[in-house]
Amino acid sequence: MDESRPNPDVLLSRLQDEAAKQTRGHLKIFFGACPGVGKTYSMLEEARVRRAAGIDVVAGIVETHGRAETHALLEGLEVLPMRQISYRGVTLREFDLDGAIKRKPGLLLLDELAHTNAPESRHARRWQDARELLAAGIDVFTTLNVQHIESLNDVVAQVTGVTQRETVPDSILGEADEIVLVDLPPEELLQRLAEGKVYFPEQAAHAAEKFFRKSNLIALRELSLRFMANQVNAQVQVVRHDQTIERIWPTAERLLVCIGPSPSSAKLVRSTHRMATLMRAEWIALTVETTGAAVLSPEAREHLARHQRLAQRLGAEVVTTVSERIPEEVIRYARSRNVTKIIVGKPVLPWWRERLGNTLVDRIVRLSGDIDVYVIRGEGEPARVVSP
C-alpha cells in the first residue's frame, strides 16, 4: 500500500468536521494571566470593530467590575436583559441563555467563561452555556484566566497557595477557533491595582496581600505564555497533518530520544532531559518494538519499563510503536511530530565493522534529512546491524 496516499477514513472525518463547522458558531477566547490585564476591555474593543463592520453584536453578560474605561466601551452596544432567579429568598441576576438563543445575534459577548451559574440554571457552568450557543450557530467572545484551566489547577495552587474552585475543562479550549493572549507586565498590573483600576479600593488592598503578589504574577504570566506557546505548537501540528507536510518546521525545538532495555538508555534519558531543559523544549522518549524473534525477554522488558518510568518522571512524553524496520519508524514518527533533534546511543563496534556503516544509528543518520541527530556515547552497548 502507498503510505503517501491520504487515508480515506481521515479524509471523510475531515469533510465531516468541515461540514459541522459550517453550522457551528465560532469561539474566540481572550486569555490572560489573571484579573486586570485587560481581557474584557480587549473583547469590547474588538466587538465594537465588528459592530462597525455590520455584525449584529449583543452583550450577553459583561462584567466591568466598576472600571470606568471598560464600562464606556459598552455604550452603543445592545445589552441582553438579565434573567431574575429567586433562590432561598434572594433574587439573583444571571445570564439569560434562552433569551440569547431566541435573539440569535451574529456575535454574543459572554464574559468570564469559568463562572458558576446560579442554582436552577439549565447548566451549572457558563462554559456549558457557551457550548449551547455555539451549537445554535452563534459566534461567542469570552474571557478566561490561566488559573481557571482544569489541567493547570494544581500548578496554580502550588504557586499561589489558592485553589480555584471554578475551572474550565481543557476540551473547551480545544474547541476554540481563536485564543488571543492579553498580556500585561506584573509592574503595570500592580500599578493598575494601586490606582483602583482592577478592584474597588477595599478589595484591592486584600488582593495585593494575597493573590496579587509580584512573585505570583510573574509565575502566572509564565504559565499563560507557556500555554499559548503550546497552543501554537498544536496548531502547527494540525496544519502539517492536514496538508501532509513531511518536512520539519523548526518553529520550536522538540527532541526525541530512542530508548530500549540497554543500560545506556538511562544515560540517554538524562542527557536528553538536560538538553530539553536548556532549550525549554518538549521531548519524547520513543521505543520501537519488533515482533517475532526479536521479542524482549521478561528481564529486558523490566529494564525497558524502568527507563520509560525515568523518562516520564523527568517530564518526557513516553511513546511505544511497533515496526520491523526500526530506523524508518524512528524517522517516520519524528516527522509526524515535527521533531527537530533525535538523540541516539553510540554503538560499540570493532574497527572493521565501523567501516561497514550499517548499524541502526547509521541508518537513522542517513534517513534523517533535515532533522539533527545527536549520537551520545553509551555504556558498552552492542551494535545492531540492519539490512540495507
**Fraction of residues in H or I helices:** 40-55%
- CATH architectural type of the largest domain: 3-Layer(aba) Sandwich
Per DSSP, the total helix count is: 15
- Seen as an oligomer or otherwise, the chain set is single chain
Distance between the termini: 21 Å
**Overall number of domains:** 2
Q: Main sheet: which strands, in order across? A: 3-2-6-7-1-8
Largest sheet: 6 strands, parallel
- Given helix and strand content, the structural type is alpha/beta
Let me know the CATH homologous superfamily of the largest domain. Answer: P-loop containing nucleotide triphosphate hydrolases
CATH topology of the largest domain: Rossmann fold
CATH C-level name of the largest domain? Alpha Beta
Weakly predicted, low-confidence segments: 350-356, 380-388
How does this structure look, described?
The protein has helices at residues 8-23, 39-52, 68-72, 97-103, 126-135, 153-160, 170-174, 186-194, 201-209, 214-242, 264-279, 298-313, 326-336, 351-354, 360-367; strands spanning 27-32, 57-61, 78-79, 83-87, 90-94, 107-110, 139-145, 178-181, 254-258, 282-289, 317-322, 341-348, 372-382. β10 (282-289), α12 (298-313) and β11 (317-322) form a beta-alpha-beta unit. The model is unreliable at 350-356 and 380-388 (pLDDT under 50). α11 packs parallel to α12 and α13 runs parallel beside α15. It contains 15 helices and 13 strands. The protein is 43% helix and 20% strand. It is elongated, with a radius of gyration of 26 Å. The strands form 3 sheets. The chain has a 6-stranded parallel sheet with strand order 3-2-6-7-1-8, sandwiched between helices. It is α/β, with parallel strands linked by helices. The chain has 2 domains: 17-240, 3-Layer(aba) Sandwich (Rossmann fold), CATH 3.40.50.300; 254-382, Rossmann fold, CATH 3.40.50.
